[in-house]
Amino acid sequence: MKEQLQQEFYTIYNKNAEHEFFSPGRVNLIGEHIDYNGGLVLPCAITFGTYLLVSPNNEGVFRFRSLDFKEQADIPVQESYTKTGESWFNYPLGVFNYFIQQGHQLQGLDMLFYGDIPIGSGLSSSASIEVVTAFALNHLFNAGFTKLQLVQLSQNVENKFIGVNCGIMDQFAVAFGEKNKALMLNCATLDYTPVDTNLGDYLLAIINTNKPRKLAESKYNERVQECAAALKTLQQELQIVNLCDIDADTFNKYEHLIDNEVVKNRARHVIEENDRVKLAAEVLSQHNLDEFGRLMYASHDSLRDLYEVSGKELDAVAEYSKTNPDVAGARMTGAGFGGCAIALVKKDAFNKFSTELIQYYTDKIGYAPSVYSSLIGDGVGLLKQAVDF
């Protein structure tokens, strides 16, 4: 892969790339719709992501090329930039804009991006491209940002330059990811704990439903509002800042305050899911994958029944997984209404799992999902020979 990318760079620019960087995608192992409720999530970096090859030029131009998209751009170095259309290069351009606004002098760069993250699948392709660009600029121009600052500026780009109101989990996971570790991240404080996640004989199967996530944004905003309504009601008697400030036992004592059953269900999912994350970190560190699998299924059931964000496509993946003895657990991951599910599958049974799931899903849904295998990988950094392809 590394040699292929170098050859592509040479073909485009008629010179070799002087610098090579990699930033992974991410999945959230458990802890869904928690980040805007001040709770705990458990993401990890995966072993595919975004590659960036760079060489400086003396022409004062940022040249954006990608092996994934036809659109390309040659943009002069200037004092500020604004988003133009929906093209992919807006994501790195927003990072360039941030660096310039912070007073950093940048020079022209020839760049080649390549990503093997399925676009629009909920595996954080946008966060991956933002973080790899930020890391590269920080490295090339000695800007002095800490890794946490790179995470925060990447989120800032997504929120303000791109205009997507995401939380910080995606950028955090792709920057701070560690091989064979999940990150238990407190979304309210940004404190995090690496959790040993030795999958042993298992791997992470990532199942892209291939359903366009048309509902995700509107329903996401609706869920945010429902959680805010639940919080406001509970604050009549509880001194809390976020829903995740209480556990399930406390919620059971005060749930009578919420008279809207739908809002009550939303709050119950969030609070119980936060408890599940704590338990998941504990059992993973003990290498108890059977119990972790049970928590994955419980999480999916809650997202389906209480939070109502799964849908028949994601449910089909969980349903099939429950019938397969080589699967420890499965659940939807991400915002829902399409996107991806994940499953813990025995390594030597992955091909059989993939074939059978595709058949089951196609019979039920009418078209095929895409199934990938991944291990838990490292976060953003220089591209080394050691990167697993």
UniProtKB/TrEMBL annotation:
Principal subcellular localization? cytoplasm
According to the entry, every stretch annotated as the GHMP kinase N-terminal domain falls at: 90-177
Task: Give GO MF terms, alphabetically.
Answer: ATP binding; galactokinase activity; magnesium ion binding
The residues listed in the UniProt record as binding ATP, with positions renumbered to this chain, are S66, G120, S121, G122, L123, S124, S125, S126
Could you say which residues are annotated as the site Transition state stabilizer? R26
Instruction: Give the reaction(s) catalysed.
Output: alpha-D-galactose + ATP = alpha-D-galactose 1-phosphate + ADP + H(+)
> In which residues is Mg(2+) bound?
S126, E158
Question: What is the protein name given in its UniProt record?
Answer: Galactokinase
